[in-house]
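pasting for ref
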Amino acid sequence: MKGERGFALVITLLITALLVALTVEFVNEVFVDTSARQTFTDGQQASIMAGSGMVAAIKLMQDRLPTLVQRGYTSQSDLELLAKLLQIEDENGTIRVTAEEESGKLNINSIVNPDGTDNDFYRGVADRLFKKLELQTELLDAVADWIDKYDDPRPGGAEAPYYLALKHPYAAKNANLDTLEELRLVKGFDVKTLDRLRPYITVYNDIPNSPTTPININTAAKELLASLDATMTDSMVLEIVDKRKDTPFTTPTDLGNRVSDMAKLAQTLAKDGKIMQQEKGAVYRILSQATVRETTQYIEAVVRPLGQSPILYWREY
C-alpha cells in the first residue's frame, strides 16, 4: 500500500512539473509574441513619424531658403539652425531632425576630369585631406579608376580585372559615384574609412550640371579648409574659422581682404569656381530620427529643396 502511495506521489509530481513547464512555455510564448508584435508596431509608428519629420523638414527649408538665396551666402548661424531643424516630443515618442550643407564638402567625383584625367586642383585637395585624416592617398587612385572610363589602372588603383576576380565579382562602374555608400564597392574602402570621410566629402554638386564643384568656405570644416592649397597655413585657417562666425565671407575678394596674407591665394582659389563665388548652399543632407518606446527608426535624405526634383537620395534604416 505504501508503495502504491509513493508511486502515485511520484506520478503526481511528474504531472505537476509537466503542467508547470507547459504553463511557463505558454506564458513565455505569449510574452515573446506580444513583445515582438509591440516592437513591430513601435517600429512602424516610428517609421511613419520619421517620414513625417522628413517631409516637414523639407517644407521648412523650402520656406526659409528663398531668404538665404536673396542674401547670397550661408553662415555659421545657418548651420546651427540646420543642426536643430526640428524637434518634437510627446507621449507618443520623439522626432529629431538635423541637416547639414553639402556644399561645404569636397565632391569626390571632381578629382577626375570628364576626359578621365586627374583634376590637379581637386585631386590635390583630396590628397592633402586624406593625409590630414591619416588615410592612404592610394585610395584616391582607386576612386579615380572607378570613375574614369579607361581600363588602365593607376598605381594604387584598380580596374575591371581586380573587381571581376573577387569572390563576389562585379564590374567597375566607369562613371561618377551616385552615393557615398557606393565607395564601399571601391578597392580599399571599408566602413571605418567611409565613416572617417563622411564629414568632409560628398558626391553631390551644388550647381546642377556644372563642370565645377565649388567648396563653400563659410561652412567647410577646418580640415578641408587647410587642404585647399599647399600654402594654406594654420593661422589662415584659424582666422577664417574665427571671422566667419560673426560675419560670413560674401565673395572670394572679401576673403582675401579680411584674412591676413590671403589676398593672392583667394583670387587663385576663386578662379574657375574652385570656391563659391556666392557663398550659399543648395544641397543638404537631412537625418530624421524617430523613437517610440525603445524602437528608433532613421530616414536619411539628400535634398535640393528649391529644385524641381528635391530628393536626390533616400535611405531608411
